[in-house]
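Before the break, one more example. Copy the sequence into your notebook; we will annotate it together after we see the structure.
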Amino acid sequence: APERMLTPRYLELAAHLHVSAFAIDEAHCISHWGHDFRPEYRQLAELKSRFQKASIHAYTATATPRVRSDIVEQLRLEDPSVLVGSFDRPKLLYRVVPKQDINTQVAEVLRRHSAEAAIVYCITRKETEQMARYLVSAGIHAAYYHAGMEAEDRRRTQDRFAAEEIDVVVATVAFGMGIDRSDIRCVVHSSLPKSIEHYQQETGRAGRDGLPAECVLFYSAADVMRWQELLQRSAEQADAPAEVVENGKQLLEGIRRFATVVRCRHAALSAYFGENYQTSSCGACDLCLGELKGVADATVLAQKVLSCVARVEQRFGVEHVVDVLTGADNERLRRWHHEKLSTYGLLKDMPRKRITNVIYQLVDAGVLERTLDERPVLKLNPLSWEVMRGQRPVKLVEAQKTTPARTRLEESSWQDVDEELFQKLRELRRQIAAERGVAAFVILHDSTLRELARIQPTTVEMLRSVRGLGDRKIADFGARFLEHIAAHKDELQSAAKPGASIDDASG
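Here is what the structure looks like once it is written out:
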């Protein structure tokens, strides 16, 4: 930690050892334009004056051009070499899904990754516990993780996840920093993170073995409102400078735009970090895969919703407006005589959830506003009237009614792989890891197991051709993998023999 580094004891030790270089990780914390600004990081600039002959190296995976410039300025670096790699992660599949029944939606995603590692991120500790309980009740091996747990309980959850005893961890953002598990196949955000930088960092925990992985973000405008309230409250409690508060709002606006813009997700993320994305279609996001479609007559639908907000005199929230549009029969509507409005029942054939989603899309598009009061209400603005007068078109999207299929990348990574054998080899890897007291991925990566299940080697010499299997690992447990592969082949051959089942039954 920077606070410890700058204590007299550590500075004296560094001078005594003639330290020639300092490496600063998570360097975005130095900049108040960054997503995780920590004032104590700025004190690291003292290293430059105290150790003038030492080189300073700053590393971060989530710095925009503005943040990179600020890091250089705050550390007082003179004409430094600034090396910027690509921010794109081509083997990650990005999907943004309107949030509805979130527990059910998350479970559906995880079932696509049965027996595979996944992380589900929630905003609050309470949400992690509730989500984990639901997933367990749905038959998914899950556990929760958050900073409010006892240290021993947190360690146990980490160890169980690393040992593949559980498939899914439901966590706050505190989880993942200490996990070096490379075979995470899915990262789910059950709510909007508070910045693109957080999203990039958290989704980056998927697919570190080089194989395809899926990242699903569940989004609603209500999440934006919630973060705005949390930002304001924490700023007041910490007495934060106005520029820091404003930067937090800008970061939130960045992730909101990412979630709502009709643009390739890979291109949008790359552009945010100042990178020019050249590919016309990534083939690895919901938009480029054609999983979203434009809503027919979107402007007319928007006009009906906005007209209803006008008819109720901009005094009610989302639920009440949906009640009016669907023609609900309840005491509150009758008390306000809203069953007599011209917009009453105007969308009676449309599901409530879809109307709610349309309202939030209109808020996201800036043609409708939702207040931040304790009881938020919908308000019109000048753009609302332009839409109602037919002067401004509106675009709305909805998910295609199809089950997400494997992408080309996913298909190619499984091509010619015997998936039954792959699962058997995963179980063997788990056994070996338990015997040695290490995490399963330390034994072999999933990519290596897939290659074994693809070529199905029969000799030690063939094992040497598999990437990830060096002489040491082959000597330690190569024979056990060969035995499992041979046994699997024997089972297939026995099952394929004509009349095998009859002979077995009569035997």
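Residues 283 and 289 are 6 Å apart (CA to CA). Residues 416-496 form a domain with the DNA polymerase; domain 1 fold (CATH 1.10.150.80). Try to locate both features in your own notes.
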